[in-house]
Design goal:
Blueprint: H1 2-16, H2 19-26, H3 30-44, E1 49-51, E2 56-58, H4 60-80, E3 92-98, H5 100-105, H6 107-117, E4 121-127, E5 141-144, E6 153-157, E7 162-169, H7 171-177, E8 192-195, E9 204-208, E10 211-215, E11 221-224, H8 229-237, E12 243-246, H9 247-255, E13 260-262, E14 269-271, E15 274-278, H10 285-296
Parallel strand pairs: 3-4, 3-5, 8-11
Antiparallel strand pairs: 1-2, 5-15, 6-15, 7-12, 7-13, 7-14, 9-10
């Protein structure tokens, strides 16, 4: 059990990138976490972590160890969590990795009633646009769109089953530059583009009556999707150009008239996201409770078949 505790401490420190942040997660102290890692290194006879005043990163040996023990410790945790079945209420930590759009548009309707129903569960949500291995990175589950799902994962629909993009601009911009009537007209307009991380620009896609139009946005601003998205929206409000994002994201500005819809018949609909997790015989009780809650509150399946392409909606 001492080995297991030290391995868990090493895993937490490596994932958090530091002893203090790992100690906060573990409910311990930085010195205790450091002692655990030193004991493990002494027993193994190899250095597992590079330590500097600014960062803590795994050595090659540490990275190999992480790769092997992460799934194993996850299984141990799940096995020990079986005792949760004997509690009146499930307890423990549930860690989710989700796209920014999900954290903003979908989870606010789900999380508060879930936490009210299960007050002994600690929910940790990390918003991240990267495509990651949720198990190797220490998450219980993730939320992603269609093709971003790993084939060996269990997937459960979460949130609305249809999400729609909306193209909008400020009244001042449209008065100055005119209103586009076809997606190709955007080539003559200022478009406020965005990208995921360091990837290519997000190509705007429109669809009407079976016809699909792709437009590579060109304009005075490119924003990183996530933290800078609202900055791009505010730039549109200020009259800098046209922006194309989830309708639900833009709805507050549309409702108060700060942004005006354009090209509405061409707005693209896509299938909503999925909660996904490893197919295990014994799910951790917090995850099992969340899956059951999501399934019990899932909206009715809409009519029609919206087009599915997760690359348009985030990792």
């Amino acid at each position: 059990m001492d080995d297991l505790a030290d391995l868990t401490a090493f895993l937490t420190v490596a994932r958090e990138g530091g002893f203090r942040s790992a100690a906060r997660i573990a409910g311990s102290s930085a010195s205790c976490m450091g002692d655990a890692v030193r004991r493990l290194e002494a027993r193994l006879g190899v250095r597992l972590l590079h330590r500097t005043t600014r960062s803590v990163t795994p050595t090659d040996a540490g990275a190999r160890l992480l790769e092997r023990i992460s799934p194993a410790l996850g299984e141990v945790r799940a096995a020990l969590d079986v005792v949760n079945d004997f509690r009146d209420r499930p307890a423990g930590r549930l860690k989710l990795n989700v796209p920014t759009a999900v954290a903003r548009l979908i989870l606010p309707q789900i999380v508060p009633p879930f936490l009210a129903k299960y007050p002994d569960i600690l929910l940790e949500v990390i918003a991240d646009e990267r495509r990651i291995d949720v198990v190797a990175d220490g998450f219980d589950a993730g939320i992603r769109y269609g093709e971003w799902l790993e084939k060996d994962m269990v997937a459960v629909p979460i949130g609305p089953r249809v999400q729609r993009y909306a193209a909008v601009a400020s009244p001042a911009y449209l008065e100055r530059r005119g209103r586009p009537t076809h997606p190709r007209d955007l080539l003559e307009h200022d478009c406020l583009a965005w990208r995921f991380g360091s990837g290519p620009l997000h190509v705007w896609e429109f669809e009407r009556g079976g016809e699909t139009i792709h437009v590579e946005p060109r304009g005075p601003l490119v924003a990183g999707f996530g933290g800078a998205t609202d900055f791009a929206v505010e730039a549109a409000v200020a009259g800098c150009g046209i922006v194309y994002l989830f309708e639900d994201w833009l709805r507050p500005w549309i409702d108060r008239g700060a942004l005006v819809p354009v090209l509405q018949p061409w707005w693209l609909s896509v299938t909503g996201p999925f909660l996904y997790y490893p197919g295990r015989r014994y799910l951790p009780a917090p995850l099992r409770a969340f899956v059951d809650f999501v399934q019990s509150t899932r909206p009715q399946r809409p009519r029609g078949r919206p087009r599915v392409d997760p690359r348009r909606t985030g990792a």
